Each structure stands twice: as structure tokens, then as C-alpha cells.
Amino acid sequence: MRLLLVIGAAIIITGCAKHFKVDGMVMSLDAARRTVVISHRDIAGYMPAMVMPFRIKHPADLSPLKPGSRVSFQLAVTKRGAVVEHITTRNSSNPNAPISLTASKLAIGALVPDFELTDQQNLSVRLSEFRTKVIAIDFIYTRCPLPDVCPRLSANFARLRKRFAGKDLVLLSISIDPQYDTPEVLARYGKIWEANPAGWHFLTGDVRAIQQIGAFFGMVYWPEEGAMTHNSQTAVIARDGRLAALVDGSAYAVSQLGDLIEQQLAR
């Protein structure tokens, strides 16, 4: 608090704006008021990580944003207040990879079609059976060789499981390598992450069915030299079965994904 007062006093005295570089994740937007709620990381020299609303300087900057967008921007702080400038979304996909989003990708707010897969207990699981609960979905495969992709996604879900223990949250991790990732393989993988099958389902099934499900969330992947080349998408589905947020990549802060989920649990 003392640091903020010092910075504020300096701004008033000089009359000049202070500029801070910020990374964060969009929680919600209000186009009419030109504001966006962002869960941001520490802003060096200004404030700690938190969730708060920001005013956008240019209304057009709101158009590419959606809940779950990872963003970078400059925060200009003057004696009149703070405003967001030069905001850009951060897409983690390799621009040189032949990845293109499919036409069936769902828009935020769209009802997610029901689907049925098999979990690590060899039990049938339908998306619709979790209606009235909040659902988080990611896509992994157990042979993933990159520690900062699938293992990170699973580690993030493990942390969410602890944060929201006893809450109405269901975690679904869908394998994009179903021919290898049988229920038995997924059961062993789930034990690594101490996944309770009651609240965290590792799912496998028909190859075409999983491709169709992945397409709902913008997943594109293909086998290449014994591995799977793929993008990463994590979806948050609201209690009413509609897509509430879509997080790109695996480099997000798990606390930010948790903030998105917490917003939905509170509704």
C-alpha cells in the first residue's frame, strides 16, 4: 500500500503517465462500459497479482477478446486513473505449423454438444451427466514427450483439484491418442496425478468421435514421427452446459484458470 501511495504521489506531481507491462487472462468483458476484467500477474513496481477491472482506451481493442484470452498490454496510470493500451492476445500455437481452426469450433456462450466416452475405470461417461456442475476440459496424451505441454496441463488440473476440493467442479482430460491410451493406460497415468475418478475423468474412445469433440474447442492434431503434433486448448463449461471460456496453450498461470472457474462456481 505504501508503494502504491508513493507511485500515486509521483504521478500527481509530475503529471506524466507511468507505463507498466502486464500479462494476464480475460475473465469477462463489458463492451458498453469499455471495461474488461483481467486476472493479471504481478505488475512490477505497481501491484501484486489479482483480479480487477480495467478500462480499455480504444473500443476496437475489445473485439478480439473473449473469456480465457491470454493477453499482454501496457497499463498507463495517471492522476485521472488507469487505462489499458496496446492490448494483444497471446496465441501459443506455432505459426509455422499447418494448424487451422475448424469450422465447427464453438463460440463463447454456445451450448456444448453432448458426447460419450470411456474413462480410466472403463466406465461410460456422458458430458450431460454433469449438467449443473462446472466442467473443465483439456486434451492430453500419456506419451507426450514435452514436459511443458501435456504434463504441465495435467499438473495444472491436479492443482485445480486441490483448490476446488468438495466444490461442483468436474475435470475431463481427453486423450488425443486413443489407440494407445486405453482405460488401463489412463488409469496408470491418473495415479501419477492422484486423480480421483469421481471428479477427474481421463477419457478415451473412438478416434473420429474424439476428433469431432476436439474440433468443438479448436483442437487440431496429427501423428508425426511417433508423437502427436497438436495445439492446446482448455475449455470451461458453465453449469448450463454452455462454453464459458476457452484458454489457448499450456503456458497459462493455473491461478488464472482457477479464477475463471471460481467465477462460474459462484453463479
3D architecture notes:
The chain has 267 residues and is an alpha+beta fold. The chain folds into 2 domains: 2-89, Beta Barrel (OB fold (Dihydrolipoamide Acetyltransferase, E2P)); 116-265, Glutaredoxin. Helices cover 22% and strands 32% of the residues. The chain is built from 5 helices and 14 strands. The chain has helices spanning 2-14, 150-163, 183-192, 207-216, 254-265, and strands at 18-30, 35-40, 50-55, 70-78, 81-89, 116-118, 124-126, 134-140, 169-175, 200-203, 221-224, 227-230, 233-237, 243-248. It has a 5-stranded antiparallel sheet. A 5-stranded mixed sheet has the order 10-9-8-13-14. Strands 6-7 form a two-stranded antiparallel sheet. It is elongated. Residues 1-14 and 92-101 have low confidence and may be disordered.
What is the fold's blueprint, element by element?
Elements lengths: L1 H13 L3 E13 L4 E6 L9 E6 L14 E9 L2 E9 L26 E3 L5 E3 L7 E7 L9 H14 L5 E7 L7 H10 L7 E4 L3 H10 L4 E4 L2 E4 L2 E5 L5 E6 L5 H12 L2
Parallel strand pairs: 8-9, 9-10
Antiparallel strand pairs: 1-2, 1-4, 2-3, 4-5, 6-7, 8-13, 11-12, 13-14
Helix pairs in contact: 2-5
